[in-house]
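ok here's Coproporphyrinogen III oxidase family protein, seq below lol
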Amino acid sequence: MTTLFDNIFDSYAYSYPHKHSYRSLAPLSLSALWKEEKKDALFLYVHLPFCEMRCGFCNLFTIANPKDDMVDVYLDALAREADTIREVVQPQHFGQMAVGGGTPTFLEIPQLEKLFGIIRKLGAQPELLPVSFEMSPKTITAEKAQFLFSQGVDRVSMGVQSFLETEQKSLGRPQKNREVFAALDLLKKQGFPTINVDLIYGAQGQTPDTWLYSIDAAIRYELDEIFIYPLYVRPLTGIAKSGNAPADNRFELYLAAKSMLLNAGYEQVSMRMFRKIKPDRPVRPLVYSCQEDGMIGLGAGARSYTRTVHYSSEYAVARHNIKSIIDQYSMKAAADFSQADYGIILPQEEQQRRFIIKSVLHNSGLDISRYRELYGSHPLTDYPQLQSLLDEGMAVTEGQLFHLTSRGIDYSDAIGPWLYSTPIRTLINNFALQ
Ligand code: SF4
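and the structure came out like this:
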């Protein structure tokens, strides 16, 4: 046990600064924001905030069963936003792309065709990039899989959460296993190079045996990637409202899954991500660096990153607030997309901290010499907490690389938030979630 952390499951630091630190900004012109930025290896993220149901654990920016022509009106706005971005940001080259949400396969084929038309017009060539596309068992069809494959999608990611219907139900995501297996079969048949499923541990009534049943099912399916997510009962979600918080056996479940996956020939890339070791898997060259390259987000709820400013639309969890933000987005004229008015400005210290957090929580680790080149100082001098991780045996240095040990990775959800600055932590704590 370590004395550094009281709580192993503090929160998931998948980005820094967290979106709860965003606030209204005096409008900033995107052409000025992006003028001095490197634009030859950008990440393109497209957000489709629509799902066929609202899962009980989910606090993502999405709406279930949108009515009437809401999706089509949204796609029209997406096209206007992309046109404005092309003009004012002038992206040179995209190095990676992801379409998420929500459930992008909620869209029908003509809508998917329109989506890819928008993406290509912006200048991305999906067949040449690592491209990830999210989906659900109920909304993916053979026709959609074939279309996505033909467009160049090389990684598909499906939220399954559990291979036991009782646990799916307790997570507030009722679905039929026959639909899940049918969806996996058609993705395999289509030949996507990487198939990922997301699983959740910590559900009500889940035991090591029932959890390992799901892990084993994913392994037997020979899935390329398996993401395991600890259940966080977040405010305003279905599980939080039910007042039915499960008993916390997450660390035990996590360690059991880790052991089973490593024994089955998976490598651990991060606390959540396990990848099948498969030397012959076709992999498109990755030129985008999450620590250094910018991100262009399209759509309501999508975030965009320059070195000095992160921005997006506003964020909400309650249905009527999400709907109102999507409606506002959909009514915007092209010119309205030329400025950022919600987000956070990152002073140099926060840029450095971001570099550290994004590097440390991944198995590729922190490149000390690159940090010195960029910021002119040593990360262990700037952030003495990193020394504590070394002292506790949670990290090691090998030459110019600082990385977490296997035990350190187990504590990622404590280490990430522990590395947040005090101003960011204060902003997050004061965020009024609606
Ligand atoms: S977990 Fe996925 S499918 Fe469920 S509501 Fe959230 S985005 Fe939609």
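fwiw The chain is about 40% helix and 20% strand. kinda neat tbh
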